[in-house]
Structures are given as structure tokens and as C-alpha cells.
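Assemble and predict.
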Amino acid sequence: MATREPETGWHGENSDVNHLRGRAFEATCLAATAFGLVSVMLLLLFVANDAFRPFSADAGWLATYAATVVVPLAALAVYYYRLDEPAGEVAYVTSGLPVVGLLLTGGFAVLFIELLSVLEWFALLISLVVAGGLIVAHGRLRPKAALERLAVVLLAPIITVFGLPPTRFNWFVTDAAAALGLDFGLYYRVISLREAILMLPFVPTDWVMLLLTLVLPIAGAAGWFVEQRRESRRDGLTVVGLTTAVAVLGVVAGPLLGIGTDVWLLIVTFAVLPLGVYVEGVLRRGEGVRGLAFPVVAVLGVVVGGVVTGALGFAGPDPWLDWGFLTSATSRTAADAGIYPAMVGSVMMIIVIVLTTFPVGVGAAIYLEEYAPSQGLMGKFVTLIEINIGNLAGVPSVVYGLLGLALFIRVLQWPQGSIIVAGLAVGLLILPIVIISAQEAIRSVPDSFRQASYGMGATRWQTIRQVVLPEALPGILTGTILALGRAIGETAPLLMIGAAASVRLAPNSFFDVASMMPRQIFSWSSELDPSFRHGVLAAGVITLLAVLLVMNATAIVIRNRYQRTG
Amino acid sequence: MSTETPRPDITSRPTGRAARERMYRYVLLLCAAASILVTVSIVVLLARDAITFFTLVNPVDFFTGTEFLISRNVYGLLPLLSGTLLVTVISAVIALPTGVAAAVYLSEYASDQMRSVLKPGLEILAGIPTVVYGIFALVYVTPFLQAIGLPVNTFNILSASIMVGIMIIPMVSSLSEDAMSSVPDSLRQAGYGMGATKFEVTTGVVVPAAASGIFSSFILALSRAIGETMIVVVAAGSRPRMLNLSDPLANLFQGYQPMTAAMVQINSADSVSQLGFTSLFAIGLTLFVITFLLNLLSNRIAARYREEYE
């Protein structure tokens, strides 16, 4: 309290109040808070410098881009921060959405290139849709047969996706067909709808299939969302129509611009569509419209800078982290080394984790928050589970690797270092984190919501599915994305389950041996060559951190939106 | 409401709805019980091979041996424990005071605006993958230490421990801050009412009142440092070594191999005897038990302190 005046009745010496000591203490504490941050920021600057090598460019190049991009953007940022905060958020989201969209585009493109062809995707999705149709139809026809529906829910997807295993009936059909001189090439099992589609002699072209199974559903979902928000069916239909039009237009115009049609469709779905809906909303609300200037200025700045440097002949930098690095495999020579196969490995590992850990983790959280009794023997068991989850969150990652090694490789004999083993081991590691964050999200749903639902006669499961989960979803998503960020960076379990030090070819199946981004980076860290140590390694680190940054930023945006409405 | 509305059939119950509800309950219970299964399988699977190991190697020799050389079938845990101990101590020296000071600043001094910048910043520190910290240590910190004249080897425990310390700062600071924020304001007001300065209230009232929470965060952070793998694998070298008690300072500049790093090395080595491979599980089980006990202890302390104010 610097302004305290000596008063009558203050019997101490004024020097009893030592201001200096308090100030020094505060400054020390601030320094301690900043210590970790500042040192890591410095290290990141060093790494970024190694990865991008900005100073290998001409001074003129740097000056041009500083003038066209950095200065205007910095000025805008200061303006938003000082004067127009809503615009600042609009600027943040409009710059971030395309990045997230392009990341998703990259992920799906990798999927279609490496894992399954567009036709396989198409067949899989159609089969799932048919299964869903069967379930809905059953619900309509026999609305009261709850147990029967359960059987349909379980069996319909299995039959449409995997077909029926050999049974006596199938033998009979096949034998009868053979006796009649017919040969369908199906021996003793009924093929699934998925396989039937794959065998079709005539299939639509790739872009039609993608349009039907990816663009339209997501555009439809966006349209539905807009319709709900605005209570205007016309707006929803406009979204779907415009998206489809842009997609088809790109298919026609794409070859002229040199963009593949598949890539174009993915970009439309994941980047153009969300951005369009968001920008339209901003314009409609008229709040923070100035924020839209940020991405426009950024793009204009890059274009102008490109024209100027091209005209004046300034040479750009020669970064380690470039397109070639992202799209090629690792190599013994630093100049050719890339991270592509490891990125594919990471993407596929994330798929395994999402498919396995997410349902189990959310299910456990639902049980612990909504069902768990607090008394009796079961109550004790639940307490045990809670304590156990807390402890599992503190078990070192290398122990999870050891668990993966012992369980999946030594006991179950699955291929060493395969993606499925890596995904399951890392999935077990983040399971407690997913459970704890989902529990928090579910707990924050007000109890009055549940009471209202019960009051309407809903059962517990109906309440959970219709009321609690939709309400808790943003929180669950935030926690899961953060946990997935942790999963992408985990290295020790990958080393223990024997993920490949480096692979030249991207994996094509979940049982392939693969390398993942952090594993690949670790292999580079043991290279002594300075061009690896200060070049390729830095580029790998920046790639990994960039992916993490985008994921965390997404999670934070979801959290902020959710906190405002909730 | 028109009168033609058909009367709802409230007497009929959908058949099997109760059964379905029960089934959802059991499926969800199964999900929750999966976490117990994870713990059990860690213990069982690690113990299975560890027991094989201990039938061939005397446990007393294992826990008291001062040499760890797989190629000669000598398995003494103490060199590995020395490495782990060094990493834990050095990183604790860095992280514990820094983390508590940061917690004090965030909870007592920081303006809302400062907090809104610093807290996410600290969260970012916790989100950086540990292999990246390891690379920081090897590629940037070690040369820096050499440049300022410390006689460090290429692989040394000091730079690895510095990075481990920075990595665990957020853990200490966020848990300690929670503890300090939950100290009731009436205690602070009482302090001010007695004429104490902010410094005196902070150090004399808030920190002691939050002591058990701070202590529990210390233990969690130590457990994290003990289990930290990638930083030491990348930067601390691969030579198991005993502590040199005659010249304590020299210890800092050498490479060590903590338990976690040894596990990774044994697993990735090209040719390891069956016995050597099972030693992996003995080390792993030891590590698991140590961290598990520390986590339990931390929970105990935290649980006791929670009772105080609620």
C-alpha cells in the first residue's frame, strides 16, 4: 500500500512497514512466473530460426514482407486489442478456421491416398447409411419392441459392413446355386453390402462419390445447424445449395487451376463451408465486422509482397521446413529428408485412439457421474475406480509403453510396432485424462435439466442421451482434443512398443509397422550431422508443435464459446 | 387442444425398456471398470516377467548392486537410481521454488489481465511434448552451458534436469495456485486487520494455510520427474553410473542413465539376452511402484487439506 499516510494512532515507526521488501517479493514472484515461459519462448525462437532460416533471404525480401505483411497485421492487432475486442475475436476465428480446415483437409487427403480408396469409403458409408435406415425403419414399424431394436442396432451394421459368417443356410444357398450351374463367387458366406458395392462393375467417378458421401452430408449438417439457429428453412437450404454449387464449380474449374478435384471437394467441405457460414453470421450480426479485415490484409500482403519481391528479384529464404519436407519420406541426406510417412502414422494412430478411447472414456465418465451409487458395496467399488483413475493419470508414459509391449505384443502376439498397438497403448495412456475431463463436463450440466427431463417421464438413459450429453458435448470435445494433443506428442510408449525408427513408405493398414511424428523426430535427434541437428530436426519439431498449437487453439475456442452460452 | 386428440396409452409399457435401461447401465459400468482392468493388467503383466527375472537374479543383489551391465549380466539398480535421483533433485531445485513463487504471484498479486496471459502460457509449457524438451536440452541448452564455460559433456544430466524442471513448473504452479485460491478470504482480511502488509499476509497466512496443497503438488511433480522419459533419453546419455560422492559438483556435468532411459535402451537394443529383456520389467515395476506410492501419498495429503475449509 504505497499511498498509506501516517495517521494519528499509528504507534509504530513508519519504517516498520517495509515497502521495499514487499515490492522485491512481488517482482521475484513475477520473475519466477515468467522464467519458464521466457526460456521456452527463447528456445522456440531458436528452433523456428533453424527451421525457417529467415536470414538466408535477401534483406530486401525481408523488408518487403515486413512492410506488406508484418507491419499492417501488427497494427491491426494492436487496434483490435486496444479499441475493438469483438473484432479481435472475429479476426482470430477467421484466420484460424482456414488453418484448421486445411489441417482436416490434409488429414482426409492422407486417408484417401494411403488408407482407403474413395470407392471403399463410399461403400463403407453407404453400408452404414443403409444400416441406419434399417434401424430407423424398425423403430417406425415396431416402436415398442425395445429389446428387438437393440438386436437390430447391433446386427444391422455388422451385416451391412462385414456380411454374415458361414452358416448352414449359406452352404445350402451356395450349394443349390452350384447345382443349378450358377457361380456367384461367394462361398459359404453372405457378402456384405459393402463388398457388393466394391464388386459393382460400374461405379460413379470419385468426385461424385465424394460429393454424395462427404460434401453433401456435412453441408446438410451445416444447413441444419443454420436452420436451427435462424429458424429459417430457406437459409439452411441456401447453405446446402451454395456449398454444392461451389463444389461442383470447383470440379469443373479445378483442372484449370491445377487443384485436384478430390482435394477441392475436401477444401470446400472443411475450409470454405465453415468460413462462409461464420463470415455470413458476422456480417448479419454486424458485430466485429472490422475483424474481417485481418485475413484480407494478410492475403493481400502476401500477394503484394510476392509481386514486389518477384519484380525486384529478391531471393526468398531457403527453409528446412517446406513443402518438400512435409511430403517426402526421411532420407540419409538432410536435404531430402521429410516427415510424410510419420505424419500418416500419426493420423492413423489418432483414428485408432478416437475409435477406442473416446467411447470408453466418455462411457466411464457417464457411469461415474450419472449412475454410480455412493453407498454400499458398489459405492466402495466406485470410490476405488475414482481413486484408481486419478492414479492412472500419474503413471509414467513409459510404463504404459511397457504395458502395451507386454499385453499386445507378448500376450496377444500382434505385430510389433504396428499402428493399432501404438494407438491402443497411447489410448490407454490418455484414457484417464479423457475420463476426468468428460466427468467435469458432465458435472457442469445443471441438475435442474435432469429433473426437468425426469419430470417429463424420460428414463435415465433418455435423459442422458437427449439432455446431458448434448449439453456437455462442447466440454467433452475440448477435453478430448487436448488429450489427443497429448497423444500426438507422446514418444516413450512408441519406443517401448517398437514403432519403426523411420519408414520410407507410408503405412496402408492399421496392422502395418509405422513411424509417428515424435518417433521420427527422436530418430533424427541421434544424428550428429549439423544439417540434421539444426535443420531437419528443427523442422520436425516445428511441424509437431504447429499441429499441437492448432489443436489447442481449437479446443480453447470451443471452450470459450461454450462458457459464454452455458 | 382439440378434443379429437387420441388418448395416450399410458398403461402399456414398451416391452424390454427396463431391460434395455439396465443393459446401458452395465455397459457403462464396464467402461468405468476398464480403468481398474488397466491397473490390474499393468501390475500382473509387469509382475509376471519381473518374477521370472527375480527367480534368476537375487532381489537383494538387484536393489543393492552398484553396477548395471547387461552385456555381462550384472543387474544392479543403484546406478540407474542415481540417475533418477539426480534428475529429480536438480529439477526439484529449479521447479519447486519457481512454481510456488509463480503460484503466489498468480493467486495473490496478478491483475486479471496478467493472469489471462500468464495462465494459458503456463498451460502451453505443460502441453509441449517431452521429446521436444529433450531436443531443446541436447541441441540448445547443452551448447549454451558449454559456451558459458561449464565443463559439461555432450550428454549430461544438468541440461536434461533443467528442462525437466521447466516442464514440471506448471504442475507445481497450477496445483499450488488452486490451494492458495481456496484459502478463504476471511483469513487474509484478518491478517490485514492486524496491520500486516501484503507480503506478510502472503508469506505468513496464505502460504502456510495452503501448505498441504503445495506439498501435495510437490510430490506429484517429483513423481512426474521420476517418470519422465524422453528428456533424459535424448539428453542425459546412456551410461549407467554411480553417484560420485567425493566430488558432488562433477556429477552434474556427466551423463547418467536414469531408470526410464535404461528401459528404453534395453528395449531398443539389437541383441539382448532373455534375462536382460526381463530386467526391463523389473525396472518398470519398480518405477511403477515408486510413482504409484507417491501419487497415493499426494492424494492423501490433498484430501486431508480439502476437509479443512469445506
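Residues 61-309 of chain B form a domain with the MetI-like fold fold (CATH 1.10.3720.10).
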